[in-house]
């Protein structure tokens, strides 16, 4: 059984590193080392930054692949038209079990990501930066990076920009843009059931520039070396490098930085995958399979994978070997996808469990009738959900049925394929679904009573540290559900009765009006 991926897996590079420069020097690049490795970064107007993004064909690296330059222009123009300050959001939420590239960047090179986000904030006139993260280690790294830059958590007359961290749960839907916006506004990290572009109305109703961590890091690299230098690596049509998370039938999961245009078979074999995998899942659990022949022909690029029925998506690549039943592997994922339903619409709440049950019927001898029922459910789910989760899950199931036709025939018409399900596709361990889910409550200290015993820090070290003055320093974040019991125990055990749990109201960023046009077409 394949264990869940570690927070920060091994990192490898094909060719020369860009995003991963300096990883051979330290586990985490602090501000000083980051500047030594990458050098200083100037500023650009919104027009010049958008033009740079267009010159390097920069698309979002979170899955949707929307052109970043077009998104930046839309945010700047909407902000200028409405006369409000926009918001910039780094989406570092990786709730999908097969993705770790953004987590690696925020844990090991947080300042490269912040460079791109702050460059964008300066260009569009934003005064609020939000970083959404999923895991404890990522949150700690980001908070340290913000402190190293001296960025305040709240609006201040002295500071041009303030930054805050938003914690999202490890769920498939928590990384969707609308879910991140909702979490940033103090609500649950779930899609709201309506589709609205963040560039029009995002955090606090303001136009919001939201992209994932790798996108901002790529922008920071391009701003330093220029479009010509950036395009020296990779394909002419898709220049640069990409980060891929490799898991599945490999000895250990890893994140690989690779130039576009490199053969996919070379990347997965370098990671230790079987020489002839019977299939490779591309784009993660909302992605698509490519078969053995397709794997031999594919190169690392959006266009190449799409032409073969796959997708680059969020950069998750999962080969499976010839010794496991691909339909059994898909069933494990389908059941997990069904459990990730937000329960907000019929296709998600009813359709996904029915699809997983239908695939189980096919595997257990249901015959042609079971297969037809499964295909009907998959068709019914597609295009009717309140968010992208039903569509992505339906894509995964439809691709499974169309890729592994021989195995499907063996199960439908015979007694099965004769292979066991090895469990090589990673899914979360039982109980992990509550990790990071905010409880809506926060620890607070009554300083008139605190005597610095430090017992609270011993009971809940994940939530309370000891300051240099010998007094406790509670983390200024909502207490996650999985740590709520420990926080309440710390409150009860405080000998001075100085610790308490407070309900936190929804937090909204300050959105002052602006008197200038954010998109300056006359400069640069």
UniProtKB/TrEMBL annotation:
InterPro entries in the cross-refs: ComplexI_51kDa_subunit (IPR050837), Nuo51_FMN-bd (IPR011538), Nuo51_FMN-bd_sf (IPR037225), Nuop51_4Fe4S-bd (IPR019575), Nuop51_4Fe4S-bd_sf (IPR037207)
Ranges where the NADH-ubiquinone oxidoreductase 51kDa subunit iron-sulphur binding domain occurs: 327-371
Obligatory cofactor(s): FMN; [4Fe-4S] cluster
Keyword 4Fe-4S in record: yes
SMART domains named in the record: NADH_4Fe-4S (SM00928)
Secretion signal span: none
Region (Disordered): 183-203, 503-524
The entry's keywords: 4Fe-4S, Flavoprotein, FMN, Iron, Iron-sulfur, Metal-binding
Flavoprotein found in the keyword field: yes
Domain of life per record: Bacteria
One Pfam family matching this protein: Complex1_51K
Similarity-based family: Belongs to the complex I 51 kDa subunit family.
PANTHER family assigned: NADH DEHYDROGENASE [UBIQUINONE] FLAVOPROTEIN 1, MITOCHONDRIAL, NADH-UBIQUINONE OXIDOREDUCTASE FLAVOPROTEIN 1 NDUFV1
Protein name: NADH-quinone oxidoreductase subunit NuoF family protein
């Amino acid at each position: 059984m394949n264990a869940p991926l570690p927070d920060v897996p091994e990192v490898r590079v094909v060719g020369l590193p860009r995003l991963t420069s300096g990883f051979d020097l330290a586990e985490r690049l602090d501000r000083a080392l980051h500047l030594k490795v990458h050098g200083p970064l100037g500023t650009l107007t919104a027009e010049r930054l958008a033009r740079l993004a267009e010159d390097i064909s920069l698309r979002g690296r979170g899955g949707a692949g929307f052109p970043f330059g077009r998104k930046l222009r839309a945010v700047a123009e909407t902000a200028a038209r409405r006369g409000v300050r926009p918001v910039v959001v780094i989406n570092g939420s990786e709730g999908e079990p097969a993705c770790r590239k953004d987590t690696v960047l925020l844990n090991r090179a947080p300042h490269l990501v912040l460079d791109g986000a702050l460059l964008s904030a300066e260009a569009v006139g934003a005064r609020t930066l939000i970083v959404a993260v999923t895991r404890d280690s990522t949150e700690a790294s980001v908070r340290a990076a913000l402190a190293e830059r001296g960025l305040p958590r709240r609006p201040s007359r002295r500071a041009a920009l303030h930054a805050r961290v938003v914690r999202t749960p490890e769920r498939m839907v928590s990384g969707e843009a609308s879910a991140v916006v909702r979490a940033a506004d103090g609500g649950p990290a779930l899609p709201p059931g309506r589709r609205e572009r963040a560039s029009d109305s995002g955090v606090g109703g303001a136009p919001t520039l939201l992209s994932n961590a790798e996108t901002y890091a790529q922008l920071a690299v391009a701003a330093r070396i220029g479009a010509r230098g950036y395009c020296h690596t990779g394909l002419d049509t898709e220049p640069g490098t990409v980060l891929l998370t490799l898991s599945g039938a490999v000895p250990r999961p890893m994140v690989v930085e690779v130039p576009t245009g490199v053969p996919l078979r070379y990347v997965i074999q370098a990671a230790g995958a079987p020489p002839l995998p019977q299939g490779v899942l591309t784009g993660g659990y909302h992605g698509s399979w490519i078969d053995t022949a397709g794997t031999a022909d594919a190169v690392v690029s959006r266009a190449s994978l799409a032409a073969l029925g796959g997708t680059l998506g969020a950069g998750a690549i999962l080969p499976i070997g010839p010794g496991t039943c691909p339909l059994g592997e898909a069933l494990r994922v389908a059941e997990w996808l069904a459990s990730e339903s937000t329960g907000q619409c019929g296709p998600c709440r009813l359709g996904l469990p029915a699809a997983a049950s239908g695939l189980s019927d096919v595997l257990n001898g249901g015959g042609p009738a079971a297969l037809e029922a499964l295909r009907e459910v998959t068709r019914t789910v597609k295009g009717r959900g309140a968010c992208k989760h039903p569509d992505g899950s339906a894509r995964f199931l439809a691709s499974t049925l169309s890729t592994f036709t021989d195995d499907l025939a063996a199960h439908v018409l015979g007694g099965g394929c004769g292979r066991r399900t090895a469990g090589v596709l990673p899914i979360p361990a039982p109980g992990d679904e509550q990790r990071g889910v905010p409880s809506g409550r926060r620890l607070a200290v009554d300083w008139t009573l605190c005597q610095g015993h430090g017992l609270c820090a011993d009971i809940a070290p994940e939530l309370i540290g000891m300051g240099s003055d010998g007094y406790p320093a509670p983390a200024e974040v909502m207490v996650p559900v999985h740590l709520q019991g420990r926080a309440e125990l710390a409150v009860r055990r405080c000998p001075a009765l100085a610790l308490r749990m407070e309900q936190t109201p929804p937090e909204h960023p300050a959105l002052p009006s602006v008197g200038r046009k954010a998109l300056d077409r006359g400069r640069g």
